[in-house]
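Trying the structure run again after the queue cleared.
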Amino acid sequence: MLNLSNKISLSRIFFIPPLVFCITQVQHNNHYRYLCLFIMMIIWFSDMLDGYFARKRNEITNLGRYLDPVADKLVLVVSCIILSSDHIWPEPRFPNWITTVIICRDLVLMLGTVVLLVITGRMDCQPTMLGKATTGLQIIAIISVIMGNHIPLTILIAIWWLAVILTFASGLLYMYRGVKQL
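Done. Tokens:
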């Protein structure tokens, strides 16, 4: 049986297909941009809400410890890939190198988690404040790209750089924590 916070996490995964559909339609009808924005805001809000309910209702579960970050990663990776495609998304779009940094960090962390599990038989997937800030800033970067020309390019570039710096820093922190567990 899924508790409320796990259902909210799962709902983020179910929002991915409508988000992808809306993103692919923006080139044909700019009104879809606002639907994308609305869906991303729901996803962001639900990310905060599921953690709140898990703590408030004392419903922190093993499933939730994995489901929440998996939902985050799926939304972020799919969004970054699509929003960096010049065949799908109009300007401004994510530079490919930013998408690469985000995906590589997540792949390294997933591989490290599997290695920890194999070597030690356990893994600590507790999020850090830096990791939460990174996810939040990555979502803000995605929302900023979706907003398009409503955000000045200098601010958009600053958001991208902050997202990359936090992505790199949180990746190093998680790797450090993983190595300490060995």
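Residues 1-79 form one domain. Worth checking whether this holds up in the mutant runs.
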